[in-house]
Amino acid sequence: MKFANHCRRSMLTPALLLLALVPATGTFAADVAPSAAPPAYVEECSAEKRCAPGDEADNCRTDFGKPDACKQKHAKDGFVFACKTRNPSRWNEIWCRPGKSGAAAPQGKQ
């Protein structure tokens, strides 16, 4: 009887070890921004490209934890959303306020 229990335990140990390792061999994915932009990529969202000359610009940085932070910051100060840089976790938003020239701020796109 002791021999049978010993054999059963010794056969189960490798099987349990194998089952424990199987989930660890799968692939995992996460929402991680690329370490660098693709070589051909040119950022189109910048104050120089999106705000008119003479406009006041704000480069507001935010992230997925506070996605509306810049909108709340500029709710009543005359700034208009111009664009948002591409990044899934953390990004910059460009906000423009017409300067002394009186030119209208650009219409943003999200």
Describe what this molecule looks like in 3D.
The protein is α+β, with helices and mostly antiparallel strands and 110 residues long. The chain has a domain at 47-97. The chain contains three helices and three strands, in the order ααβαββ. The protein has helices at 2-21, 47-50, 69-73; strands at residues 56-63, 80-84, 90-97. Strand 2 (80-84) and strand 3 form a beta hairpin.
Can you give keywords for this protein?
single chain, 110 residues, alpha+beta, 3-stranded antiparallel sheet, 3 helices, 19% strand, elongated
Shape estimate: elongated
Report the strand count: 3
- What is the chain-wise order of helices and strands? HHEHEE
Instruction: Kindly report the average pLDDT value.
Output: 78
Radius of gyration: 28 Å
- Largest beta-sheet characterization: 3 strands, antiparallel
Q: SSE layout and pairings?
A:
Elements: H1 2-21, H2 47-50, E1 56-63, H3 69-73, E2 80-84, E3 90-97
Antiparallel strand pairs: 1-3, 2-3
